Amino acid sequence: MKSEDIPFEGGPMDGRVLSVALGPTGHPPKTYRIPVPDPDGGPATVLVYRRVPRGHSRRLGLIQGWKYLHDPDDSSGGGLRWPWSKPAGAPGAARTATPDDAGPDDANE
After folding, report:
1. What distance in Å separates the CA atoms of residue 70 and residue 79, rounded to the nearest whole number?
2. Taking the alpha carbons of 102, 103, 104, 109 in that order, is the dihedral positive or negative?
3. Which band of pLDDT confidence, cut at 50, 70 and 90, is reported for residue 107?
4. In terms of Cα–Cα distance, which of 42, 76, 57, 54 is closest to 8?
5. Quick one: which of 63, 62, 47 has its CA closest to 9?
6. Residue 33: inside a domain, yes or no?
7. Which residues of 28-54 are buried (b: 16+ CB within 10 A; e: fewer)?
8. Residue 100 domain flag
9. CA–CA separation, 54 vs 62, rounded Å?
10. Which is more confidently placed, 25 or 75?
11. What is the pLDDT of residues 3-51, one digit of tens each?
């Protein structure tokens, strides 16, 4: 499996470089979660880092590499997002049909 040395910025991992396994597309994961055990035996704290471009080429604007930035308030929820799914905050995302909704055939009754 291929891996790449990727720098981390911000948070407790600031300035460190870790070897991160690449996915089937040749890119590192979009989020990198690091569980940190509690010294008192409590629940582990999870550090979340987001993948961002390290830089772009001048001529074509291609991404030169990746780095991870610390994301203290992780809003992704950690679940998978499919391309055909509605956004989590969309107004009609959790709407269900109610008896008050009139369909086109119900209008003439």
Report:
1. 19
2. negative
3. low
4. 54
5. 47
6. yes
7. beeebebeeeeeeeeeeeebbbebeee
8. no
9. 11
10. 25
11. 999 999 998 999 999 999 999 999 999 999 999 898 888 888 899 999 9
Q: Domain of 40?
A: 1-74
Residue of higher predicted confidence among 108 and 50: 50
Question: Do the domain assignments include residue 10?
Answer: yes
Q: 3-class SS at 80?
A: coil
Domain count, the chain: 1
The whole model's pTM is what?
A: 0.67
- The reported pLDDT for the residue numbered 65 is 92
In a domain, 60, yes or no: yes
Q: What's CA 71's distance to the chain center, in Å?
A: 10
Task: Give the tokens for residue 60.
Answer: 């074509």
